[in-house]
């Protein structure tokens, strides 16, 4: 028999799912461009500094070649960022009303940084006639400002994951200063992991472009050094990302146990030690794994947890039920807190026990999505480590170069999968424990949301087509040699061949 509240829930979900799909697509699409700008600018700054240090122009020429992809991705990142703010105000007005002051504080800081950012971008784009050392300083400053700006935005995300540093007046969240958000225990590993992932993307893009030139025996004297330098940069970024990711996982086990349990498909904690699952088929309805393959007892060791410390999803759902009952007894009409899991209209009458149990069971992340997204991210990370390590280990042959070219989507796959783990793992909360996603919606109809999604898909496809075409045309056009005097080098330096790349400094 259908429960009395089930029909209303189904009707709400059509609107909720449409809004989430629209925002998820827009955010993921925006994230195709932003990490590239952070990663490419860091790589360009490293290339320019390396050229200055060694006194050889090859990497400066490669850096100038990468300037055009950076500018294209920067422009697309700016263009695709504005729809996100518009959607928050229109489609998620319930959320916007709660976080207006918190988000406004961060956006005010971002607005103060923006003039410096755009000024540095203009100087970077137009200042290649400057002395190499001055342009390198501009590139380095721009790379730092991009990290600062992204760190400010990540403050909001970390706060949504773990809302500390703010006060709630019953209807809204408030912070006295931006630094109130900086003490979030999730923030530093999140920034390191996100920025490291962006550096991986920029570095691997440099590896793939250099490999493409080498396969075609074009610009070998430039592509050889840039391939190895980009591979070294990428490997360092991959190691940083792995360390920061492990650090984030330890923090999740403490501060976001439901997300951690979903990542590991951990339904019931074993006091004798939990397995680290390599493969599983999570069944959310039955609250178990239909099939699993794992390493016994390894999960506790990886998470640095004592036996029995990690909590399973069944236990967490039961705790949510107890929390809901307590919240309904203490503040049944509260607009914030656990009762928002019932929706924005809660609670004219106290929900029945069956409804409370149902909502508590639904208050878990989509386990299969989170579990497999995390493993896709790990597989992509491992594949990139193997490729760049192989490039650095020995002279790259045609097969390895071909693999580097065709593997160019891997960093995007890893980043988008990691983003899905982060955001889907927080569900069903917009602000963990404070505001549920169902209570964050605006008053736009599902049909209107659908039309906005269709418009976003068409516009995004057109923009992506133009963007890819311009980048491919730039790569096919090739490098423009810089004057040899720019780095004080010898003009008659020998031209290395593909077989001698390993000896190219």
From TrEMBL:
Membrane topology (UniProt): Multi-pass membrane protein
Keyword Cell membrane: yes
GO molecular function: electron transfer activity; heme binding; metal ion binding; oxidoreductase activity, acting on diphenols and related substances as donors, oxygen as acceptor
GO terms classed as biological process: aerobic electron transport chain
Pfam family membership, one: Cyt_bd_oxida_I
Compositionally biased region (Polar residues): 488-505
Compartment(s) where it occurs, according to its Swiss-Prot or TrEMBL record: Cell inner membrane; Cell membrane
Matches recorded under InterPro entries: Cyt-d_ubiquinol_oxidase_su_1 (IPR002585)
Membrane-spanning intervals of the chain: 27-53, 65-82, 102-126, 133-160, 196-215, 227-247, 372-393, 400-421, 453-473
Keywords: Cell membrane, Electron transport, Heme, Iron, Membrane, Metal-binding, Transmembrane, Transmembrane helix, Transport
Region (Disordered), start-end ranges: 482-505
Protein name: Uncharacterized protein
Organism encoding this protein: Piscinibacter gummiphilus
């Amino acid at each position: 028999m259908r429960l009395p509240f089930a029909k209303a829930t189904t009707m709400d979900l059509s609107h909720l799912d449409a809004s989430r799909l629209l925002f998820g697509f827009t955010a993921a699409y925006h994230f195709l461009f932003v990490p590239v700008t952070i990663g490419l600018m860091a790589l360009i700054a490293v290339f320019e500094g390396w050229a200055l240090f060694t006194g050889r122009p090859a990497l400066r020429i490669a850096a100038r070649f990468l300037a055009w992809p950076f500018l294209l991705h920067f422009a697309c990142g700016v263009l695709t960022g504005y729809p996100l703010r518009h959607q928050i105000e229109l489609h998620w007005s319930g959320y916007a009303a709660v976080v207006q002051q918190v988000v406004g504080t961060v956006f005010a800081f971002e607005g103060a940084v923006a003039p410096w950012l755009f000024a540095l971008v203009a100087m970077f784009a137009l200042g290649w006639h400057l002395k190499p050392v001055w342009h390198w300083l501009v590139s380095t400053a721009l790379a730092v400002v991009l990290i600062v700006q992204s760190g400010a935005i990540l403050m909001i995300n970390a706060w949504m994951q773990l809302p500390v540093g703010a006060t709630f007046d019953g209807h809204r969240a408030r912070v006295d200063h931006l630094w109130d958000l900086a003490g979030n225990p999730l923030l530093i590993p999140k920034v390191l992991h996100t920025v490291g992932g962006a550096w991986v993307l920029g570095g691997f893009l440099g590896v793939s472009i250099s490999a493409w030139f080498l396969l075609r025996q074009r610009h070998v004297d430039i592509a050889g050094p840039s391939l190895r330098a980009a591979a070294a940069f990428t490997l360092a970024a991959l190691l940083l990302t792995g360390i920061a990711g492990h650090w984030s996982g330890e923090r999740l086990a403490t501060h976001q146990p439901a997300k951690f349990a979903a990542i590991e498909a951990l339904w019931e904690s074993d006091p004798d030690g939990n397995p680290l699952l390599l493969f599983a088929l999570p069944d959310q309805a039955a609250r178990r794994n239909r099939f699993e393959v794992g390493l016994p007892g390894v999960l506790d060791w990886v998470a640095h947890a004592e036996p029995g410390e990690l909590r399973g999803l069944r236990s967490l759902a039961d705790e949510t039920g107890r929390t809901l009952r307590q919240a309904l007894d203490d503040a049944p009409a509260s607009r914030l807190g656990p009762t928002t899991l019932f929706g924005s209209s809660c609670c004219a009458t106290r929900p029945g026990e069956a409804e409370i149990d149902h909502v508590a069971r639904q208050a878990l992340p989509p386990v299969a999505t989170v579990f497999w997204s995390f493993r896709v991210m790990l597989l992509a990370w491992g594949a990139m480590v193997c490729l760049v390590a192989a490039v650095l280990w020995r002279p790259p042959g045609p097969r390895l170069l071909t693999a580097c070219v065709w593997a160019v989507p891997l960093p995007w796959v890893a980043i988008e999968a990691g983003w899905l783990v982060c955001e889907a793992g927080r569900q069903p909360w917009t602000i963990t424990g404070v505001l549920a996603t169902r209570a964050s919606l605006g008053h736009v109809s599902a049909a209107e949301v659908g039309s906005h999604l269709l418009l976003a898909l068409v516009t995004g496809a057109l923009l992506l087509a133009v963007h890819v075409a311009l980048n491919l045309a730039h790569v096919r056009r090739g490098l423009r040699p810089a004057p040899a005097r720019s780095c004080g080098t010898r003009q008659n330096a020998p031209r290395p061949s593909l077989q001698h790349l390993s000896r190219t400094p």
